[in-house]
């Protein structure tokens, strides 16, 4: 997280400093608690089967047709396995955790 980045009060998505509204739910950066309550849960753009990447701070909204997160490249089915296989240093000891990964590949858990 860089200086000035902010966490959306409505959906807890991490946003870059330059954004005035949340990338995930469009809640304004300086929304009041009352305004926040109308965002985050009001996701009419999300269709059946769509999924949110749960890898660390990614949180990207992915269409149901995607099997790999468009933002971080982690496969939908392997998100939990990667987190479980990671150590405190962020290195995955099992290079077979994700298809196509090479020995020494890792995910930054920052």
From TrEMBL:
UniProt keyword annotations, A-Z: Metal-binding, Zinc, Zinc-finger
Cellular component GO terms held in the UniProt record: cytoplasm
PANTHER family on file: ZINC FINGER PROTEIN, ZINC FINGER RAN-BINDING DOMAIN-CONTAINING PROTEIN 2-LIKE
SUPFAM superfamilies (alphabetical): Ran binding protein zinc finger-like
Organism: Artemisia annua
Occurrences of domain RanBP2-type (ranges): 2-31, 47-78
Domain of life the protein comes from: Eukaryota
GO molecular-function terms, A-Z: mRNA binding; zinc ion binding
Annotated SMART domains: ZnF_RBZ (SM00547)
Regions crossing the membrane: none
Protein name in UniProt: Zinc finger, RanBP2-type
């Amino acid at each position: 997280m860089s200086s000035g980045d902010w966490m959306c009060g409505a959906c807890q998505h991490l946003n870059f400093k330059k954004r005035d509204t949340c990338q995930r739910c469009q809640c304004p950066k300086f929304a009041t608690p009352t305004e926040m309550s109308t965002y985050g849960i009001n996701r009419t753009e999300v269709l059946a089967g769509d999924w949110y990447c749960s890898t660390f701070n990614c949180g990207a909204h992915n269409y149901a047709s995607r099997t790999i997160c468009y933002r971080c490249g982690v496969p939908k089915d392997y998100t939990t396995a990667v987190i479980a296989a990671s150590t405190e240093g962020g290195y995955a000891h099992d290079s077979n955790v994700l298809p196509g990964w090479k020995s020494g590949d890792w995910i930054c858990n920052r």
